[in-house]
Hints:
The protein is an all-alpha fold. The chain has helices at residues 7-27, 29-34, 37-51, 67-94, 97-104, 107-118, 125-143, 156-180, 186-210, 219-244, 249-253, 258-269, 277-294. Helix content is 73%, strand content 0%. The two termini are 30 Å apart.
Amino acid sequence: MSGSPSRSLAYLCLALSMALVGSYVALSKPLVALFPVLLLAWLRFGIGAVAMLGWLRPAPGEAPLSAQTRWLLFLESFFGNFLFTLCMVTGVSLTSAVAAGVTMSAIPVAVAVLSWLLLRERIAPRTWVAVALAVLGIALYATAQPAQATSASDRGWLGQALLLAAVLCEAAYAVIGKRLTAVLSPKRISAIINLWGFVLSTPAGVYAAWHFSFGAVPAPMWALLLFYALAACMWTVWLWMTGLRAVPAAQAGIFTVLLPVSAAVVGMLVLGEQISSLQLLALGIALLSVVVATWPARRPA
């Protein structure tokens, strides 16, 4: 597709996208404590839908949506927005945040395997090294956190299965997104999949809103909700899709390591959380994976 960004700009877009995800994940802790999860998701998609109304229009000269493209847009939202959130939240409730972090470290591997199977991408050995470093860094960071008891140990197997399903959903999101960027602009992809997320979350969101006291929400929380919605639905998706246009899906998956890195930095600087030296080492390994994946290849003379 014409108009693809340069490789360096694509790397920057992918890095900013995942860094922003980690930031709003850390800053959304007060929102999760105040709003029910399903209501928060519905409000988020609703705000995003209003903000991206202008992005729904096709670009000049863009071909009408084919049946296959419409189906891929629905699957992108279903796996990346709806099913991922459901599996992740339920999986954490049945296991622990540490278990979730270890399981989520498999995302770069899952993205690489799916891109090889479905997109027929050729994955260079250096990319596999970067994937291994990414998995090691995220898993080490998660296991270095204080141990947390599971909320339902007898159903821990179900929680792990749901977390694994969340990993596959995120991998599908990256691979399907790569397909979509070949035929649609990043802005239109962002707007359409957000609109599908709003439709899918509306039944549960309306039910949760009916039983929620909106008058008890302080004004600063509404401002935080606005930032969270725009970051989660608009900015991060647009940046991610823009980067995917010029970067193979397997290589882009490695940038997911920046999510825990930015979340940890925001937690330390804004929320006053403490971080151990072992966790700092883990974050360093995670960052090394991005360096290995994006280091310019040596060109033959």
